[in-house]
Amino acid sequence: MSRFRTTMVANARPERPERSASPVPPSRRATTWTTARTRNPSATAGSAPATSATWMQSGICISPVRSSDMYISGGSNVYPREIEEIMLTHPALSEVAILGAPHPRWGEVGLAVCTCEPGQSVTAEELAAMLEPKLAKYKLPQRYVFLDEMPKTGYGKITKKLVREELEARGLWPEPEAVS
Fold first, then answer.
1. CA angle at residue 166 from 5 to 103, to 5 degrees?
2. Where are the chain's structural domains?
3. pLDDT tens, 31-81?
4. How far apart are CA 19 and CA 16, in angstroms?
5. 3 state SS for 3-58
6. Rama region for 97: left / alpha / beta (φ>0; ψ in -120 to 50; rest)
7. pLDDT tens-place string over residues 111-123
8. What is 71-170's CATH number?
9. What are the CA-CA distances from residue 177 to residues 81, 89, 143, 148, 173 (Å)?
10. From CA 86, how far away is CA 127, in angstroms rounded?
């Protein structure tokens, strides 16, 4: 599944706030501008500001969702932070990142990337047994990867993008048809 979430706005007013005589609060401006583009995407084609939103001819807005915040598994939203916080209660783990990995049936499933404390170890089975009573089944990571060190930004922050790139470089990132 892609890192994009599709959203359609229906029954919206097709006016643009910058053409309106009345002052419009900033929070309403984006909504109104989005609905105008959704109503008639061909009329405003090519005039999109430098944002990460992509417009399709059907009038559906595809906005990138930060993949680090959520993935969709079988139609259910899964928030990695919830899983990461539970996993970090295990004494052997020092860092955890949960990513949504492609899956042919469910769209995405959880992939847990873990690093252990020095001198400690833990198995995927132990982590799965710890998580089972605490999480719904669709939230359980389907795969566990253990790294010696998490990739980090220059500021020392773990970003899901860097983790995914590291897994791809090592050949550990699953392809949709390879995951079962």
1. 40
2. 4-64, 71-170
3. 333 333 444 555 545 544 434 344 444 444 444 444 447 999 999 999 999
4. 6
5. CEEEECCCCCCCCCHHHCCCCCCHHHHHHHHHHHHHHCCCCCCCCCCCCCCEECCC
6. beta
7. 999 999 999 999 9
8. 3.30.300.30
9. 27, 33, 15, 28, 12
10. 10
